[in-house]
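Structure ticket #2291
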Amino acid sequence: MPNPLDNQPPLLHRTFMHAFLSTLGAAFKDKGVVLMLVIAPIIYGFFYPWPYHSEVVFNVPVGIVDNDHSRLSKTIGRYSDASPRLKIHYYQNQAEAMQAMYQNDIAGFMVIPAGLEKKVYAGKATHVSVLGNNSYFLINKYVQTGFTQAVATVSAGVEIKRSVAQGAYINTAKTSTQAIPLRIDPLFNRTEGYGAYVVPAVALLILQQTLLMGTALLIGTWHEKKQQNATAFGWLGRILALASISFLVGCFYYGWVFTIQGYARGHNLPGTLLFFGLYALTVATLGCVLGMWFRERERSMQLLIFSSLPVFFVSGIPWPTSQLPLPLYYLSAVFPSTAGMNASVQLNQMGASLSQVSGYLTHLAILWVTFFILLLIVQHVQIQRYRSRSINDSSQ
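Resolution: structure written out below.
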């Protein structure tokens, strides 16, 4: 009588090198896997930074409601219009300007109150109001900054004239308007552009998601063919093969995408490459776990494709992880991208040393060991279930 256990999925890829070479061959023979591991991240590298290419916003349409109609209010309007950040439109009243903002004709407007010039030269307290559309925080920042600079420049001129009228020398009056000059030097994002802020971080998320989907796709295919099981050394070979593909694509990002886009890069290149090797291994191991868990080729695409945005939001890039609700804070630690995105930016863009990002590297190492142990446990559980089901079927 045949033994029902003879038909169970065997432990393939018993040696490290055989598993490594076989996985590379299987990955490049599978069009879907090649699409996810190679083609998709390369396409993202071209097109994702494209909308942010201009980096700095110019000529933001804004409005001015001048209720004073004085020489001072007209000066404020001229200085505002001279700002490269702003393009000025005048409105008769606040309601008209508000309607224009609702229709997205302008991004904000400034209201100059009646009697402004008289109060300023009389030394009485007064103010102008700037109302912005906060739907686009970057544009709103430029609206507020442009108006603030214009009003501050006009105010400084008024102070200088007042001091000279009271007998001060003009050079002394100019100095007294800003006794301690303020100089702001952005270190790692010289243009203060949105692209230089978001693209280097999101690139690591792109590489994670494509590697997860490609790996789970391949393991799911093997699962359907009952070729998914392997020894511990076999799994190490599989993982290294898949991680090597992602590592080469990551070098394309670090060496070409960031260079052609003009982003800060290469400040600690050896540390960046060492980190990314560990990152790729960790993500590939998680992909193997998910592939064994999903057990179907298409399931990985169905579930993972919707995870990118939530994973980004808890990564600590758009919002500090310390400010997240406690459950989300702990959940963020499960994703390699949380440590990976922060470590990559600090190493490649900011020039941090390995010791300064040792916490992130330790985090990734712990995740890799945890995922690998979990992978072996999932395989063991599936083998035991298969054996139990085979025995039950044979007894019937």
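Closing remark: The beta strands are 60-66, 86-91, 108-112, 129-132.
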